[in-house]
Amino acid sequence: PKFYKGASVTPVYEPVWMQINKLKKKVDAGAEYVQTQAMFSADAMESFMNEVVKENIKVHVMAGIIPLKAAGMAKYMNANVPGIDVPEDQIARLAAAAAEGKEKGIKGLPVKVGVDMAADLCADIKKRGICDGIHLMTIGGERNIPTILEKAGISIND
Questions:
Q1: Phi and psi for 35 in degrees, rounded to 5?
Q2: What does the alpha-carbon distance between residue 149 and residue 96 come to, in Å, rounded to a whole number?
Q3: Hey, how many other C-beta atoms are within 10 angstroms of the C-beta on 118?
Q4: Sheet containing 60-65: which strands, arranged edge to edge?
Q5: DSSP character for 11?
Q6: Which residues pair with 117 in a beta bridge?
Q7: What stretch of H or E contains 62?
């Protein structure tokens, strides 16, 4: 079999040049692709990729995308996982979905919103050609992958 050598990178990190330098070292050591820490903003991903291009780093990049399940999950990740930056508007959307679900007696609304946000991010990254692909990190929500891809307009053959 052919093995593909990969590495990881944290695009939402200050100062970004430190991650760019680490990325250069990983590519120089043989990394053929990298996948990012979870991303929640196409603009942040694009900004990072602009730095990669500026530094002439030649490597395939996959954006890591986690479909959020709840506002608490997002807050926990922001507070405890280095390199994670879930925007406050996304946390607010998840919290509003939880409140609506509680009020109307509908379970799972925050998960649905998280799936929608992940699909929107995937679609935006693809439409803008920001990077080479995505890595869906569903954390127990694998059953949502077909829905995310369908909503993002991504076929299995893409």
A1: -120, 145
A2: 24
A3: 27
A4: 6-9, 33-38, 60-65, 133-136
A5: S
A6: none
A7: strand 60-65
Phi first, then psi: what are they for 7, rounded to 5°?
-150, 180
Q: Which two tokens stand for residue 18?
A: 């430190």
- Which residue is associated with the tokens 């409140």? 99
The label of the residue with tokens 């052919």 reads 2
3-state secondary structure of 59: coil
Please give the Cα distance from 63 to 16 (Å, whole number): 16
Three-state DSSP class for residue 1: coil
The helix/strand/coil state of 8 is strand
pLDDT digits (tens, 9 = 90+) for 41-75: 999 999 999 999 999 999 999 999 999 999 999 99
Write out the two tokens for 90.
Answer: 């996304």
Two tokens at 76?
């926990």
Model confidence pLDDT, tens digit, residues 78-119:
999 999 999 999 999 999 999 999 999 999 999 999 999 999
Three-state SS annotation for 129-148:
CCCCEEEECCCCCHHHHHHH
- Asked if 101 and 109 count as a contact pair (C-beta separation under 8 A), the reply is yes
Task: Report phi then psi at 59, rounded to 5.
Answer: -160, 150
